[in-house]
Amino acid sequence: MTDTLSRLAEVLEARKGAAADSSYVASLYHKGLNKILEKVGEESVETILAAKDAAASGDCSELIYETADLWFHSLVMLAALGQHPQAVLDELDRRFGLSGHAEKAARPQN
Ligand SMILES: N=c1c2ncn([C@@H]3O[C@H](COP(=O)(O)OP(=O)(O)OP(=O)(O)O)[C@@H](O)[C@H]3O)c2ncn1[C@@H]1O[C@H](COP(=O)(O)O)[C@@H](O)[C@H]1O
């Protein structure tokens, strides 16, 4: 699972030097952070709507598709800000060893 994130992170990094019209990710970088954040917002809403539909119909295929779009655009956002997905996995690993109250107390301050 983490191998997929690593390979995708490598591709996202490589797209930083690419021409705007050469790929979708390159075009997002050229449009800038606001466009990337707009896409994260759009995909969040689409994921929520797909979850509501999945709960009503029992069919989760659209929910999986939209969640992949949301994860992907979140990775583009992190890459645009110089962050690797490993940082998020490290944070989840850190929380894994903490109980609810301890986790809140131990949250790193920015
Ligand atoms: N995982 C993805 C991925 N998921 C979703 N998308 C794109 O995200 C867009 C989301 O759909 P929308 O309809 O919301 O977007 P749109 O209408 O194209 O764009 P807007 O003009 O509305 O912003 C689609 O164009 C999808 O093709 C992705 N594009 C690329 N990847 C990965 O990123 C890698 C690099 O992609 P390129 O930079 O395109 O080579 C690829 O090899 C893939 O592994």
UniProtKB/TrEMBL annotation:
InterPro entries: HisE, PRib-ATP_PPHydrolase-like. Its main location: cytoplasm. Keywords: Amino-acid biosynthesis, ATP-binding, Cytoplasm, Histidine biosynthesis, Hydrolase, Nucleotide-binding. It is an enzyme of class 3 (hydrolase). It holds the Pfam family PRA-PH. It is found in: Cytoplasm. HAMAP family: HisE. This is Phosphoribosyl-ATP pyrophosphatase.
